[in-house]
Design a protein that fits this description.
The protein is mainly beta. The strands form 15 sheets. A 4-stranded mixed beta sheet has the order 1-7-6-3. The protein has a 4-stranded mixed beta sheet with strand order 8-14-13-10, with no helix packed on it. It is rod-shaped, with a radius of gyration of 63 Å. The N and C termini lie far apart (147 Å). Keywords: Calcium, Cell adhesion, Cell membrane, Glycoprotein, Membrane, Repeat, Signal, Transmembrane, Transmembrane helix. It is found in: Cell membrane. Potential calcium-dependent cell-adhesion protein. May be involved in the establishment and maintenance of specific neuronal connections in the brain.
Length: 709
């Protein structure tokens, strides 16, 4: 409680200045009293808050030094009327952080008004029979100042018949009276002209005068007498014009015209005549115009009763105006911190609101609340100000703007309320990482693709706005992803398109994975990754390869040709005898690697058959003696691709019951062969070499013999 009290005291400042100060006069060092240094002023933005009160036009805050100055001359009587105390209250704002301070400026009265009589001439009719010592009330002067500046003393011009007497009224003021010192004689002097001067208590003093004209008349020895010296009444401010407020009554013991009483306003200000009227005959005081408690809640004025003989008496009238709940609360949004970042902590002040109700009592007691679904709340601040603060965490992705209605309601009966809309924008902070549409992507690419072909397109969405939501794509772990897949694909930073960097080969790489990172443009940046699996689809780009029988062209370059494969089949072989099996493989996959076998050429087509899927060469019938001893078979191996690719295999078959019988057949050139027999070639070559060596040896021996001789 002590901390709260200290804080409340620190947020209220009070200055005192005299009225009628010139424009630009210093009121006080506001910034220094608030604890603000000159270096802080540009950032804290000290300013007078507008609360809708007309008094605010009188003050301004300097942006350079933070002092409070008078911006327009103040007239205390215009601001506060006859009130004993006068002050102007307003609020000042400082930003960064946002706070509000209550300022009271007390306006001291200056003796700037002279006493004023309502009439220039006061006419009195006094009978010559009036005995000395009789008093005749005179009109009181009015001074708009307050305090000692409005305390009046009176002086009467020197004359032989009257002196000045003062009578204290119930409100403490002095009423001047003429005191008859000597008996009047109408025959000697029928009239007298006196001067009454009213002097106030100011320094220097100001004065006002009125001429008192005394007509000496014949006998009228009874003045009117009011039934009360002070009449009081209470009326509501919504009383219609012409309504009866009160009735004054004065009686006169004289008869005839001397006893006929008429009622008049005494020396009253013009505003009294504007709002009230007195009936001369009945003494009824009625409203002449609409009353307003907020403008003035008490009226004090004088009435006089005058008989036909000119005698006058005075009374006081006090009318209290009671408040009616006829003013709706006035809501002023002093400051709004919009937009507010979405990561603002709970309790951050986002707006300052001032509510004001000129009514009094419960009619002017206000409650303020927020209406609408928003993470905001309103708390009371100093004076009639309220702070709108964040009640929970903000999230721009859920709501980029909050609209609430500030509702102010008084405690009158019936209660009046007013409302105004408060719009708060939420600015974005980078609190969301990009999210891929899929955690793992799959793409299928045919092998032998073109370089730069589109593989797939990844997409990530970031709920943030602006640069915080602008997503760029990269391959995680390097320029193109995983080490093994580095030269295979690339990703376009803006679109997320993944392109092939080179032509893919199913036989070398059937699938691979890369990690794609999506990163936003916030500070600090946020990112997420997704895995892209690329499956290479096979195409029929490999022909079948025959493993057995080995093709004659299958030898390494520079090496002698491989002799053709042969199989020996006995003459006694029956139908279905397994001769050999053609073995082939295809590097492709699926249908592209399904192989079928077909016998396309044979010396005896009816003797052999080839398994379509097994590649087995079997006898189609029993071998007979009429069949040639040497048989040549050509098999076609074909895959199922589109278009189909194929290879051929040549198989030599010797029909013999034993290997010894087959050797002569093997030494001869195979029927229909396109190349010379390798064995014959080797024999010829060997004979040539041996002959050459023999001739060389003979020559050397002959040369050696000749040399020895």
């Amino acid at each position: 409680l002590l901390c709260l009290c200290c804080r409340a005291a620190a947020e209220r400042l009070r200055y005192t200045i005299p009225e009628e100060l010139a424009r630009g006069s210093l009121v006080g060092p506001l910034a220094r009293d608030l604890g603000l240094s000159p270096d802080e002023l540009p950032v804290r933005k000290l300013q007078v808050a507008s609360t809708g009160k007309k008094q605010l036009k009188y003050f301004t805050v300097s942006e350079e030094n933070g002092n409070l100055y008078v911006s327009e001359k103040l007239d205390r009587e215009e601001l506060c009327g006859e009130s004993a105390s006068c002050s102007v209250s307003f609020e000042t704002l400082v930003h960064n952080p946002l706070n509000v301070f209550h300022i009271d400026v007390v306006i001291q009265d200056v003796n700037d008004n002279s006493p004023v009589f309502s009439k220039a001439v006061l006419d009195l009719e006094i009978g010559e029979w009036i005995t000395p010592g009789t008093r005749f009330p005179l009109e009181m002067a009015r001074d708009a100042d307050v305090g000692s500046n409005s305390l009046l003393t009176y002086q009467l011009s020197t004359n032989p018949f009257f002196s000045l007497a003062l009578k204290e009224t119930p409100d403490g003021s002095q009423q001047p009276q003429l005191l008859l010192e000597r008996a009047l004689d109408r025959e000697k002097q029928s009239s007298l002209e006196l001067v009454l001067m009213a002097v106030d208590g100011g320094d220097p003093a100001k004065s006002g005068t009125v001429q008192v004209r005394v007509n000496v008349t014949d006998l009228n020895d009874n003045p009117p007498v009011f039934s009360k010296s002070v009449y009081e009444a209470r009326v509501a401010e919504n009383l219609p014009a012409g309504s009866l407020v009160l009735r004054v009554r004065a009686t006169d013991a004289d008869a005839g015209s001397n006893g006929r009483v008429s009622y008049f306003f005494s020396n009253v200000p013009g505003e009294v005549r504007e709002f009230f009227a007195v009936d001369r005959e009945s003494g009824e005081v009625r409203t002449a115009g609409p009353l307003d408690f907020e403008e003035k809640n008490k009226y004090n004025f004088g009435l006089e009763a005058r008989d036909g003989g000119g005698l006058v008496s005075h009374c006081k009238v006090q009318i209290d105006v009671t408040d009616v709940n006829d003013n709706t609360p006035d809501i002023t949004i002093l400051s709004v911190s919009s937009p507010v970042p979405e990561d603002a902590p709970v309790g951050t002040v986002v707006a300052l609101v001032n509510v004001n109700d000129p009514d009094s009592g419960e009619n002017g007691q206000l409650t303020c609340e927020l209406s609408g679904e928003a993470p905001l709340s309103i708390v009371a601040s100093s004076g009639s100000s309220y702070k709108v603060v964040t009640a929970s965490a903000l999230d721009r992705e859920q709501a980029a703007e909050h609209r609430v209605t500030v509702v102010a309601r008084d405690r009158g009966s019936p209660a009046l309320s007013s409302s105004t809309e408060l719009v708060l924008e939420v600015s974005d902070v980078n609190d969301n990482a990009p999210v891929f549409e899929e955690a793992e992507y799959s793409a299928y690419v045919s092998e032998n693709n073109a370089v730069g072909a589109l593989v797939l397109r990844v997409s990530a969405r970031d709920l943030d706005a602006g640069a915080n939501g602008r997503v760029s794509y990269w391959l995680a772990g390097g320029s193109a992803g995983a080490a093994g897949a580095a030269p295979l694909v690339s990703v376009e930073a803006r679109s997320g398109a993944v392109y092939a960097q080179r032509s893919l080969d199913y036989e070398q790489c059937r699938e691979f994975s890369v990690a794609v990172r999506a990163q936003d443009g916030g500070t600090p940046a946020r990112s997420s990754t997704a895995t892209v699996r690329v499956f290479v689809l096979d195409q029929n780009d490999n022909a079948p390869r025959v493993l057995w029988p080995a093709p004659a062209s299958g030898a390494a370059p520079g090496s002698p040709p491989v002799p053709p494969a042969f199989e020996v089949v006995p003459r006694s072989a029956e139908a279905g005898y397994l001769v050999a099996k053609v073995v082939a493989v295809d590097a492709d996959a699926g249908r592209n690697a399904w192989l079928s076998y077909e016998l396309v050429q044979a010396s005896e087509p009816a003797l052999f058959r080839l398994g379509l899927h097994s590649g087995e060469v079997r006898t189609a019938r029993a071998v007979s003696d009429r069949d040639a001893a040497k048989q040549r078979l050509v098999a076609l191996v074909k895959d199922h691709g589109q278009p189909a690719l194929s290879a051929t295999a040549t198989l030599h078959v010797v029909l013999a019951d034993s290997l010894h019988q087959a050797l002569p057949e093997l030494s001869e050139r195979p029927a229909g062969a396109d190349t010379p027999a390798e064995l014959q070639f080797y024999l010829v070559l060997a004979l040539a070499l041996i002959s050459a060596l023999f001739l060389l040896s003979v020559a050397l021996a002959v040369l050696a013999r000749l040399r020895g001789a």
